[in-house]
Structure formats: C-alpha cells, structure tokens
Structure prediction request, 389 residues.
Amino acid sequence: MSVFTEETRERAREIIARYPADRSRSALLPLLHLVQAEEGYVSPAGVTFCAEVLGLNKAQVGAVATFYTMYKRKPTGDFLVSVCTNTMCNVLGGQEIYDTLSEHLGVGHDETTADGTITLEHAECLAACDYGPVMTVNYDFFDGVDPSTAVGVVDELRAGGRPMPTRGARLCTLKEMAVQLAGFADDREGAVADGGPGEPTLRGLRLAQQHGVSVPGFDPNTPIRSKAEADKAAAEAKAKAEAAKPAPVEASAAPVKGGDGASAPTGPAESTGPAKPVEASGSTTRDVKAPDDKSPQVRTAETRQPDAGTAVPDAPGTKVPTDGTGTAPAAGDARSAEAAGVAANAPAGDGKPAGDEAGAQERNLTEAKAGTDADGAGSADASETGAQK
Prediction:
C-alpha cells in the first residue's frame, strides 16, 4: 500500500475545509482527483485514504469512484487520448480515426502503450458536435481531426513534444490535470494564456454584430465592479431610498367631533401614525429572515420538518408530528428519534453486506431439513417447501 505524500495530505485538508463541517463528504469528488494526481489512477490505497479522511467506509468511496469514467481504476498513461465515436463525429469519420490510432499504437480501448505514454479510449460524446470529428488529450480539444492529423498528434506526444490544442490551455500530463480538477490552479507560467476560441463558438457573436443585435442598454465598456464596490453602491442606494421616504405624521391631540357627537372622519393628514402593513392571508406567522450563516440545505430541512419544540403550526410547508392524540411530542424528540434510527442501522462494513449472517443461513437450512425429516417428504416436496418458505 502506497503512502501519500505530506503535500497530498495538506491539499486534502485544504479541500475538506472548503465545505461546512457537517457536509465534509461532499469533498469526495475532488479528493478522488487528488489521489489520482499522485498515483495516476484511483488505487485501493487511494480509496482507503479518501475513506479515512472523510469518515466513510471503502464501499461508499468505491461506489463513487466506479461510477464516473474520469476516475481510472488501473494505471493510466501520461496522456489520455479520447476519440469521439458518437453519432455526429462517427458520421464525419470518428470511428475511422479511432481504428487508425488503435492499429498505429497497438492498443485497444482503455489500454496503455508499452512505454506508458498514451492511453487510448473511445468516447461516446465530447460535447463538441460543431467541431467534429474531435478528440481530446487530457480533456483538451483537437478539433476537425482526421486519421493523419490524429496520428501526428500521438507521435509528437510519444516523442516528448506538447502539441498545441485547438482550444484551451497548454497541454499537461494527466496527473497535472488531475490536480486542476481537484480545484488547484495551474501554476505553469502562461499556461492558461495559450489557445483561443474556435470559429463556431464565435459564430453567434459575429451574427449579432453583423445584424446589430444587442441587449438593450448594453455598454461593452462598463467595468465589472468588485464585491466591495457593489456592496457600497447597494448601501448608498438603500440610504437614499430611506431618506426619500415621507416622515410619519404626528397624531392630533383630540379627535374632532362631528355635529352628531361622533368622531368626524379624518383625512390622511390627521392619521394617528403610519399605516400598519396588511398581513398575508392564510398564516399568522410573521416572516423571519433566516441567518446568513445557515446553509440552504439546513434551512430547507428545518422548514419542511422542524423540531416539534420550535415548529410553528401554520407555517407554510410544515407539519408538526403528533403522537396520535393530536399532541405534539416534547422538544428534542425528533432529533432523538433520528439519532436512534441511525444507531440501529449502522452502515455495512467492507466484508459483507448488512444482514448477510452465517447464523441466519444455518438456521434456515436446519429448519428446512427438520421439516423434511418430520413428514418424510421427498426431494420434490422439500423443494416445494423451500419455495414456500
């Protein structure tokens, strides 16, 4: 079992720190990219590492690692060459390109050359139909390729060169790309300045310019404000709106009596104070702004099924649980019940699935045999009895 470097462990801690403390398992995807960046694939040691730092079992990590094709389960070459063989690219010659590369390199799908340089794979779709046929090298695009240009790219890679992608940044190895997919910037000087947009990508912009199509009031020279500048502008606009509000009218000392002794109707100037806002119908609950530091998931969960001690009976979307007599349980029971349920359903270990107990199997076999011996049933009757059980 390989031991991961301290740099990898430090980066793992940095990745986990990006997420709330109770949502740390969300860091699993970038962590899998991180271990792939060190070993070139997600090894059993990488699965164990991710499980340990996130408090998961290996089955949970393995389920995710085997679901996504970007996580490789066996050693992969420095350059992953993916050729699109889906409908559009296939019509344009994608399968011919793949077959040519497979014969030229002497490898098939998901196989690596003997020198460990290139792993070849066919891809169902690379989401670039307007550039087809396409292939990618470590997820950077080479557009409009044919068998000859594809062979030229892989030969240059095997010779130690770095051919320039049609679009995107400068080529890097698969391990270097995995670091970026884990959420860390490419630290190579000028690496992201290479490449440029393709003509099909710019086609919509050119048509808009040709026909004078633009968003009303759009000024391309408008600078993009920083968050601090935007917050300052919002505060100034709010202060200006508050200052523009009319001042509340002072209440009169005594109501004016009409000729019949009743209070005379008063106009707006004789109001006793600012009008109270009309409460929304259907609920007597006042609106309360949720704290900004609470995640949307927590707010949603508390709204849909709050704890009985803090729930508002007629709040929209809520239903306070009762014990059958119409009485809500004491505060904290909801959380206690949830904790008890979790404790009673421990996750399955790595050895065997939950419920796969040898004792239960032996007991069933013993009962089946005892039933057969008691009534003298033959093998056919025993099979029928087993089927019924």
